[in-house]
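Q: Here's a chain of 170 amino acids. Please give me its 3D structure as tokens.
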Amino acid sequence: MKHKIKALTIVLFTIGSIVFTACNTKNQEKMKTENNESIFPKGEKLPSDWFTGNAFLSPLVSQDKNNNFSAGAVTFEPNARTVWHTHPKGQVLLVIEGAGLYQEKGKTAQFIKKGDVVNIPENTEHWHGATAATKMVHIAITNFKDERQVTWLQPVSDEDFAEANKTASE
């Protein structure tokens, strides 16, 4: 009887160790995904004519016979941002990681974070990007009008960016 209890104890201990290890490994993988890895690849660096700092695009959906829009994951490293621009048929931003800023011309900058949705009306002059201290990733869904999606304008000045960071943090 003592041998059976000892054997059963060893079996239960072994099963418990296996379950603990499996749960711990799964939690570590989940934390790694949540903290260190984006859902989509970082993509290719975007041109400095349209972006200040390090911004990257991973295309997700291209315009085709079914979709009159494109979608892409855009990664902004700290301080990175678009230049002022407009979209002839609007744009939607889905923030999926980090925190950033969105500003329409003549309005106060808005702090945006993971889980926020920004619906940008057509022909509205605006810019968006990371904060000075945080990375941001968003999905940009941009509509076409007559085969055009965007009109790029002037860069956001460092002074305006600093003011947006200050205002958004208050």
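Q: Can you summarize the key feature?
A: The first strand starts at residue 44 and ends at 45.
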